């Protein structure tokens, strides 16, 4: 009897790119149309030798967990890259039918899905380094919440400790509990242990401000783990998964915190970059082939787009981000601006149904993807951080500050995504008392 695979197409594509169970890297070409659309690598350099994806053997289909070692120069920062792999031929770039747009600053963008524009290499090398440092050293500082806060009593700057005293031992928060509190929490955890309940994920645009605020009132924070041991600053920096910028997002309820507690300033450097790219994008061209009823009111974005929230995702080489839709913002069509730094990644961009095969894109360091309009309802995810693809400007260089050396040490095995959104439409009065 034939075995029928009942996974939706998006899930099958995720499994394909995630797969580490065999010695071969996942194939990037010749993929069946039932699994995904042809892969796009829009930021690849013209010269093969400058292409870190090709250099790392991604077009060879021959996996080498030890990828190319530089012959003449010791690359302390390329642990994912050692012996020369069989590299294979780079395929021709298939851009047939791909709509190009030109930003006001002359940069070229590609409309990769409805309302979604990828601008390859939007950030130059200096901007990439500055955002790398900001993402690690600044965006992780209080009051910005981050994934480790619930569980560890962190020093004021974890990155500073990683940089200067990596062996510093950091204790888990549960050790601060007295006996009574510990017992109460462990009993509550045992009661809550049953099957996980599905969290209501209705879009905020449908729930409305008042309902979200009502839900905020019931939120008691995430549960601290009662089992963790102490870890070094070095180890914890590698366990960091996210930091929250601006308006606070409550992961367990999938809503923003609309109370005063959730009102945190959004970083100015990030706001500037996001506002510039949104105002420079020719939205009339982006939406020229879209049915009128699906075209958002983009004409004011150049003036009134103002990101007020964001997430920094920190990926180690085996980390993935499963298919999801971001729909907790009150206006579901305003742009979400997403910046890639460090190793390249496979990004899957689908439709509003997980049954449709997604489009795989290679996102390289410096690329910026903007999602808007109905494209904001598209499932997307990151099934693979691509081994061996660190851009050379993240390798050690003479003259690097101690902080930059630490940032490069961290990114040697990692990728960062910084994304920004606008929760409140312009003119919306926030009553966050
Ligand atoms: O890492 C990425 O490029 C995407 C991140 C993302 O989809 C998200 O944070 O919602």
From TrEMBL:
InterPro entries given in the database record: Alkb, AlkB-like, AlkB-like_sf, Oxoglu/Fe-dep_dioxygenase_dom
Keywords, alphabetical: Dioxygenase, Iron, Metal-binding, Oxidoreductase
Cofactor names: Fe(2+)
Fe2OG dioxygenase domain mapped to chain residues: 306-418
Keyword Metal-binding annotated: yes
Pfam family, one: 2OG-FeII_Oxy_2
Domain of life: Eukaryota
Keyword Oxidoreductase: yes
Entry-linked PANTHER family: ALKYLATED DNA REPAIR PROTEIN ALKB-RELATED, NUCLEIC ACID DIOXYGENASE ALKBH1
Protein name per Swiss-Prot or TrEMBL: Fe2OG dioxygenase domain-containing protein
The organism's taxonomic lineage, starting at the top: Eukaryota, Fungi, Dikarya, Basidiomycota, Agaricomycotina
């Amino acid at each position: 009897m034939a075995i029928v695979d009942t996974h939706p197409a998006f899930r099958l594509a995720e499994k394909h790119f995630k797969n580490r169970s065999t010695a071969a890297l996942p194939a990037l070409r010749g993929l069946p149309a039932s699994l995904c659309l042809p892969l796009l690598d829009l930021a690849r350099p013209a010269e093969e030798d400058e292409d870190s994806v090709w250099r790392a053997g991604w077009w060879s289909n021959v996996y080498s967990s030890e990828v190319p070692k530089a012959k003449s120069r010791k690359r302390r920062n390329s642990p994912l890259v050692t012996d020369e792999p069989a590299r294979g031929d780079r395929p021709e770039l298939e851009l047939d039918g791909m709509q190009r747009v030109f930003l006001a600053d002359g940069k070229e963008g590609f409309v990769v899905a409805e309302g979604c524009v990828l601008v390859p290499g939007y950030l130059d090398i200096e901007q990439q380094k500055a955002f790398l440092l900001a993402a690690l050293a600044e965006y992780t500082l209080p009051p910005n919440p981050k994934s480790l806060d619930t569980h560890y009593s962190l020093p004021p700057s974890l990155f500073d400790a990683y940089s200067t005293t990596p062996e510093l031992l950091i204790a888990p928060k549960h050790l601060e509990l007295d006996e009574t509190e510990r017992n109460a929490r462990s009993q509550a955890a045992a009661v809550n242990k049953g099957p996980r309940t599905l969290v209501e994920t209705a879009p905020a645009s449908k729930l409305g401000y008042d309902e979200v605020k009502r839900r905020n009132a019931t939120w008691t924070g995430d549960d601290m783990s009662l089992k963790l041991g102490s870890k070094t600053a070095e180890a914890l920096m590698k366990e960091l998964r996210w930091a929250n910028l601006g308006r606070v997002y409550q992961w367990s309820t999938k809503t923003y915190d609309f109370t005063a507690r959730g009102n945190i300033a959004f970083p100015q450097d990030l706001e500037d970059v996001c506002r510039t790219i949104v105002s420079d994008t020719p939205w009339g061209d982006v939406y020229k082939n879209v049915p009128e009823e699906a075209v958002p009111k983009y004409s004011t974005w150049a003036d009134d787009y103002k990101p007020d929230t964001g997430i920094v995702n920190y990926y180690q080489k085996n980390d993935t981000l499963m298919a999801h839709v971001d729909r907790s913002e009150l206006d579901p069509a305003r742009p979400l601006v997403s910046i890639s730094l460090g190793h390249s990644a496979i990004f899957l961009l689908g439709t509003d149904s997980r049954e449709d095969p997604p489009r795989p894109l290679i996102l390289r360091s410096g690329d910026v993807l903007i999602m808007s309009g109905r494209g904001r309802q598209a499932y997307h995810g990151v099934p693979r951080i691509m081994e061996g693809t660190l851009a050379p400007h993240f390798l050690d260089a003479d003259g690097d500050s101690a902080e930059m050396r630490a940032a490069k040490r961290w990114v040697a095995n990692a990728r960062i995504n910084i994304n920004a959104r606008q929760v409140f439409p312009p003119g919306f009065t926030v009553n966050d008392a």
